[in-house]
């Protein structure tokens, strides 16, 4: 009997053997799509970053190996330095503002407020509008220097003269304000989902012990939101690195040091520039920039997992 069981284990159950062709049939399309759509372009981009390539579709036989020259040239370019500086300001300043607002909204909306579903929908609504439409609305209806500009109208009530929100001095901060306005709702929902998973027993016990609202937030809500905080940081990093459309909307003709982001600069290099000073295409440097942006996301993800750990919290 024991030998028969061992033979059955070695041969596998008949049901499992019958399911193998079906598993292969369902997994094959997904594996092929992954290899063609993601893995092959990723490997090609990494390899291309070490070659001098003019067009992204040029055959490999026309590539000229130049080592890490593409990476060095990108860091020596003033426009790329401005793009990285803008990315840093977007990630840090915009991230702090968005996370704080999203957390405040999430705490308020999960505290028993009436009409929670309505306010949640209103705050999340900007995420349903395309970035092009949202950016256009901000440019022409909120930031405009004309009489119908919303921000200047509000400032006029307090005696402040018309502010040129889209001039070189204010353009980046105007773009940052518009972008953060649309991102608060998305991160708010992640915080709300984390808060709603916290059991009421913790808060009831804290109430019995005499804890006030701020103490409950500090010692219960915040520590148990580690997972949501980590997720929000990673998603904010991904969206910041992928920042592209807003820069194109605010500066549709030429790249500007005030609004340029790494992906805008990469797009100009790969697909042809509208700026006369960058008229020559260079897909090799564009690939190098793409690789560096991927490394930035991986590093932030690793640091976030290292700093915001999943350790059990002692209450």
CATH C-level class: Mainly Alpha
Give the number of domains.
1
Order of helices and strands: HHEEHHHHHHHHHHHH
CATH topology: MetI-like fold
* Average pLDDT number: 83
How would you describe this structure to a colleague?
There is one protein chain. With 315 residues, this protein is an all-alpha fold. Helix content is 68%, strand content 1%. The chain contains 14 helices and two strands. The chain has helices at residues 2-11, 14-48, 69-76, 78-109, 116-124, 131-142, 150-156, 171-196, 200-208, 213-221, 226-241, 245-250, 262-271, 283-307; strands spanning 51-52, 64-65. Strands 1-2 form a two-stranded antiparallel sheet.
Relevant terms:
mainly alpha
Gist?
This protein has helices spanning 2-11, 14-48, 69-76, 78-109, 116-124, 131-142, 150-156, 171-196, 200-208, 213-221, 226-241, 245-250, 262-271, 283-307; strands at residues 51-52, 64-65. It has 315 residues and is mainly α.
Break the fold down into its secondary structure elements and pairings:
Blueprint: H1 2-11, H2 14-48, E1 51-52, E2 64-65, H3 69-76, H4 78-109, H5 116-124, H6 131-142, H7 150-156, H8 171-196, H9 200-208, H10 213-221, H11 226-241, H12 245-250, H13 262-271, H14 283-307
Antiparallel strand pairs: 1-2
Helix pairs in contact: 3-14, 4-8, 4-11, 5-8, 8-11, 11-14, 13-14
């Amino acid at each position: 009997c024991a030998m028969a069981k061992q033979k059955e284990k070695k041969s596998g159950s008949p049901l499992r053997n019958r399911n193998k062709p079906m598993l292969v049939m369902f997994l094959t399309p997904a594996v092929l799509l992954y290899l063609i759509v993601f893995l092959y372009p990723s490997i090609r981009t990494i390899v291309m970053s070490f070659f001098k390539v003019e067009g992204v579709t040029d055959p490999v036989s026309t590539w000229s190996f130049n080592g890490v020259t593409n990476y060095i040239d990108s860091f020596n370019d003033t426009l790329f330095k401005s793009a990285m500086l803008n990315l840093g300001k977007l990630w840090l300043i915009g991230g702090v503002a968005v996370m704080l607002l999203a957390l405040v909204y999430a705490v308020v909306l999960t505290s028993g407020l009436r009409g929670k579903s309505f306010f949640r929908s209103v705050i999340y609504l900007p995420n349903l509008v395309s970035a092009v439409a949202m950016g256009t609305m901000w440019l022409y209806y909120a930031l405009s220097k004309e009489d119908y500009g919303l921000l200047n109208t509000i400032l006029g009530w307090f005696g402040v003269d018309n502010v040129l929100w889209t001039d070189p001095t204010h353009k980046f901060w105007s773009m940052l304000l518009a972008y953060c306005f649309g991102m608060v709702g998305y991160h708010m929902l992640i915080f709300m989902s984390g808060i709603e998973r916290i059991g009421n027993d913790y808060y009831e016990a804290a109430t019995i012990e005499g804890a006030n609202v701020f103490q409950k937030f500090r010692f219960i809500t915040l520590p148990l939101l580690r997972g949501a905080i980590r997720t929000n940081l990673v998603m904010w990093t991904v969206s910041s690195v992928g920042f592209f459309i807003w820069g194109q909307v605010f500066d549709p003709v030429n790249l500007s040091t005030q609004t340029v982001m790494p992906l805008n600069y990469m797009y100009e290099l790969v697909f042809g520039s509208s700026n006369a000073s960058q008229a020559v295409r260079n897909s090799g440097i564009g690939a190098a920039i793409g690789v560096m942006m991927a490394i930035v996301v991986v590093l932030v993800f690793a640091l976030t997992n290292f700093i915001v750990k999943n350790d059990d919290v002692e209450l």
